Amino acid sequence: GAVVSQHPSWVICKSGxxxxxECRSLDFQATTMFWYRxxxxxxxxxxxxxxxxxxxxxxQGVEKxxxxxxxxxxxxxxxxxxxxxxxxxxxxxxxxxGKTSGGQETQxxxxxxxxxxx
Amino acid sequence: QKEVEQNSGPLSVPEGxxxxxxxxxxxxxxxxxxxxxxxxxKSPELIMSIYSNGDKEDGRFTAQLNKASQxxxxxxxxxxxxxxxTYLCAVALAGQNFxxxxxxxxxxxx
Lengths: 118, 110
Description:
By secondary structure, chain A is mainly β. Chain A is 0% helix and 54% strand. Chain A has no helices and eleven strands. In chain A, the strands form two sheets. In chain A, strands 2, 4, 5, 6, 9, 10 and 11 form a seven-stranded mixed β-sheet that branches. In chain A, 33% of the residues are buried. Helix content of chain B is 0%, strand content 55%. In chain B, the strands form two sheets. In chain B, strands 2, 4, 5, 9, 10 and 11 form a six-stranded mixed β-sheet that branches. In chain B, β6 (54-58) and β7 form a beta hairpin. The termini of chain B are far apart. The relative contact order of chain B is 0.35. The chains are: A mainly beta, B mainly beta. The interface between A and B is medium-sized, with 20 and 19 residues.
């Protein structure tokens, strides 16, 4: 299957700082990537859909000015958490559509980035 | 509202038994169906995909799809403690609109 990477895997930062998370599709081009957030023992929550060359589409309740998404190329999307606060501490996961061995498209997830805001 | 529903569990089965995970969906236009496994603290990984009615087997895993009844299930034969995880059902409409279920937590007891 397709491979999606994320960097960094762990971030610890002080309240008020901004944190940038990168998501890359390593062996395929992804016109669409997705950003999810997951709190402990809870379900995946879709935050936004990142579209190459255009503005991201945010889910209801997600502040677009706080969670800046840039999809600069077909293999890279970034999520910037601006002025992070302790309540932003979570597990952030990106995904992208890639082809299975059978040629069908499905979502492949990156390994996730764990953010801890002190 | 497009919905995908799963029992949250936990579903506990003894080692060696068959684990049966179920998922129902609301949108009859759904065309593609997926099962992901998520270990605690990790991101989801794709384990099965199914696109037509019937059964699809891959090793110890069998996905079953019944579009008329709008359900998809995952059977895990000879369950192992390493299968203990949360299993997410995902349903896709034509195009790229994925909807994930809340997941079922499976615990395989040694």
